[in-house]
């Protein structure tokens, strides 16, 4: 097994930087299905471009390289202890060279281990089989879409859909609801794995196992095959769209598995995976550990990045230079595309929690400034200079309890993130003259390219993803989805999709 570690490093790098063929096909289909020129189709153009950039530059597709989760089949007698040790070494190496973001955080102290290792990280499942080869499958599922996983206990009452009973129709309702509740926060359009039955733990495990199925396979259980087809057809009428912008495509794949349950329990567990569905596999020679075959890479590798021009007027584009004035912000309306130049500062969970305290102040003046909800992948060169390797937005809703007060405290004019924010922030934007800009989630290469210089960093004690990075950007494009006049595209899309959800309340199965 002298080549095992090298093979694992290749698998990790390839998984983080190069989307599987079946996922590429699904993204391409979504682009063709979406209405040309609407917000979702513009977002899909950026996503396609980002996929190609990540592959060409061998850099992370999304800055959140997720929880590395390995599913391994070994022949009887294979040394799992050695394999595990070498996987940990490969993870450390991949982190050091910027292919994985340091993502393992002490839940009590908040300390980032810096190398993606720690209790519970990574996740490795071993199974024996009677073949001679070793098979290793890897999924890198990010935290934002992980937060949109949901588990239902039947019977239950679901908003928009009413009663969901302990039968196939109840299961159908849960799955539709799962797509609805994710909105754009898990970087829709996503892929869902569903586990019917089990207990709370095994149900989720089964749901996640479904994510190892190919997008285009057919469920061997006829009832479930019918259910998967129905969900794919119906969920795409909910109007969530790419990034929750509204549109024709809300779901790219649905795979359902079933297992027995206890008489008292009936769980439907849903694992939501963003469009950046990073999973690959390799078959290895059990003697040498060398890669014999790649999995999920068997069809076309190309993705078309040609932009399809809209015949209509398209959105208004406004170029802004930070710092921004209140008058410039008041002029912006939901739907405008903003191209931002100048300085922006990253600030996410730890930043907001810290800065809300009256005694804490930012190290730089943020008046008229821009905060970017982003936890980038960064590398430092020999001269000590930092470089951005991946820098897409993170889910903004986690900052909802703090955002309005932070805007007020520091005189912010723009907050950039994804998935939108709630009523408290909307009111804050109105009161203090600020705007929420939605960047395209997962488009980490696209945005990394906009960063012309890393001007500095503060609060490094929060770890690389949570530190406050000061960035000079050029041509950073995002869409106004919450303006300073009380309008929120997110509130509108959510209300419309709930309305559409209720069209599917009647019994189907
Ligand atoms: O942690 C991140 O960078 C992003 C996260 O995956 C998210 O979707 O919010
Ligand atoms: S930012 Fe979006 S694309 Fe990236 S891991 Fe989170 S949910 Fe997935």
UniProtKB/TrEMBL annotation:
NCBIfam families associated with the record: ttdA_fumA_fumB (TIGR00722), ttdB_fumA_fumB (TIGR00723)
Annotated GO MF terms: 4 iron, 4 sulfur cluster binding; fumarate hydratase activity; metal ion binding
Iron-sulfur in keyword set: yes
Function recorded in the entry: Catalyzes the reversible hydration of fumarate to (S)-malate.
Subunit structure, as described in the record: Homodimer.
GO terms classed as biological process: generation of precursor metabolites and energy
Protein's name in the database: Fumarate hydratase class I
Species name: Tumebacillus permanentifrigoris
Residue span(s) of domain Fe-S hydro-lyase tartrate dehydratase alpha-type catalytic: 6-281
Source species, domain of life: Bacteria
Residue span(s) of domain Fe-S hydro-lyase tartrate dehydratase beta-type catalytic: 289-492
Protein family per UniProt: Belongs to the class-I fumarase family.
Catalytic reaction(s) noted: (S)-malate = fumarate + H2O
Keywords: 4Fe-4S, Iron, Iron-sulfur, Lyase, Metal-binding
Cofactors that this protein relies on: [4Fe-4S] cluster
EC code(s) of this entry: 4.2.1.2
């Amino acid at each position: 097994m002298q080549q095992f570690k090298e093979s694992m490093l290749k698998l990790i790098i390839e998984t983080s930087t190069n989307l599987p063929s079946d996922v590429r096909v699904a993204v391409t289909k979504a682009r063709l299905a979406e209405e040309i020129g609407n917000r979702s189709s513009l977002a899909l153009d950026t996503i396609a471009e980002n996929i190609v950039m990540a592959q060409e530059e061998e850099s992370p597709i999304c800055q959140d390289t997720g929880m590395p989760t390995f599913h391994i089949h070994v022949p009887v007698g294979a040394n799992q202890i050695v394999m595990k040790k070498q996987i940990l070494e490969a993870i450390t190496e991949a982190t050091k060279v910027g292919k994985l973001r340091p993502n393992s955080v002490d839940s009590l102290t908040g300390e980032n281990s810096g190398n993606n290792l720690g209790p519970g990280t990574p996740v490795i499942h071993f199974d024996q089989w009677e073949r001679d080869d070793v098979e290793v499958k890897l999924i890198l599922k990010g935290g934002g879409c992980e937060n949109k996983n949901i588990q239902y206990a039947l019977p239950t009452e679901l908003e928009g859909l009413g009663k969901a009973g302990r039968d196939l129709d109840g299961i159908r309702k849960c799955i539709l609801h799962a797509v609805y509740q994710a909105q754009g926060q898990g970087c829709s359009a996503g892929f869902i794995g569903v586990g019917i039955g089990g207990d709370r733990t095994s149900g989720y495990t089964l749901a996640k196992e479904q994510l190892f199925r190919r997008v285009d396979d057919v469920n061997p259980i006829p009832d479930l095959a019918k259910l998967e087809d129905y969900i794919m057809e119906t969920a795409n009428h909910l109007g969530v769209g790419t990034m929750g912008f509204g549109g024709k495509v809300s779901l790219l794949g649905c795979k359902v598995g079933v297992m027995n349950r206890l008489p008292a329990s009936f769980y439907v567990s849903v694992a939501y995976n963003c469009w950046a569905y990073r999973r690959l596999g390799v078959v290895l020679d059990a003697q040498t550990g060398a890669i014999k075959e790649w999995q999920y890479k068997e069809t076309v590798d190309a993705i078309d990045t040609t932009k399809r021009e809209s015949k209509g007027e398209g959105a208004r584009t406004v170029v802004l230079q930070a710092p921004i004035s209140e008058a410039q912000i008041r002029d912006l309306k939901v739907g405008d595309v903003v191209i931002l130049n100048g300085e922006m500062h990253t600030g996410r969970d730890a930043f907001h929690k810290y800065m809300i305290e009256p005694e804490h102040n930012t190290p730089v003046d943020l008046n008229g400034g821009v905060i970017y909800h982003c936890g980038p992948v960064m590398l430092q060169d020999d001269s000590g200079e930092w470089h951005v390797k991946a820098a897409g937005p993170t889910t903004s809703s986690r900052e909802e309890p703090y955002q309005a007060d932070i805007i007020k405290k520091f005189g912010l004019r723009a907050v950039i993130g994804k998935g939108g924010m709630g009523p408290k922030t909307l009111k804050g934007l109105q009161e203090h003259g600020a705007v929420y800009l939605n960047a395209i989630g997962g488009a980490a290469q696209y945005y990394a390219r906009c960063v012309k210089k890393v001007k500095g960093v503060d609060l490094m004690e929060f770890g690389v993803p949570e530190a406050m990075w000061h960035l000079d950007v050029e041509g950073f494009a995002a869409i106004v989805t919450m303006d300073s006049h009380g309008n929120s595209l997110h509130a509108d899309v959510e209300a419309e999709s709930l309305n559409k959800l209720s069209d599917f309340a009647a019994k189907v199965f």
